[in-house]
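Morning!

This is the sequence you dropped in the shared folder:
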Amino acid sequence: MGMSLSRSLDLPAMSGVDTLAQELALLQDKGKRRIALLGSRHVPVVAIHLVELIARSLAQEGHSLITSGAQGVNAAVIRGVLEIDPSLLTVLLPQSLNLQTPEIREQLEFVLHLIEKPENDDLSLPIASSLCNQEIISRCDQLICFAFHDSETLLTSCRSAEDMGKVVSLLFFD
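The structure's back. Tokens below.
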């Protein structure tokens, strides 16, 4: 008669998994993800080029990217993804298209998946942006955020994403 060996492994609770280990696992995962890229409107020029490069690289790998429609980081993400494959980009606006700046409206003409939020037109832009960021985060697997240490709306969005169990990469300009 064969002997049966049984062992119990004490696995760590999921809430205790190291964030760095999660990020490394995602980097090694060859599956396609929905990645949200959010960031400040006021960004150094060198950083804009870096954001565009990251967005292009993620699109080249076939990941779907979602962002909002503001100047700065979001505009750089839009430019980067449009160069590679417009079908991989979703842009969620905090308010109606007609409330966006002329430069952004011009850029958004090339976005295939554009979602407007006219129901937020009566809200202040910070409140509408916060709601927009929450919806973007709910639609993604991972959040990459480019911010300053005093970017309250973005930092709140990052904390919210972490609370939802999303992998968050927060990069500071300052």
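Headline: Strands lie at 34-39, 64-67, 89-92, 113-115, 142-147, 167-172.

More detail when I'm at my desk.
O.
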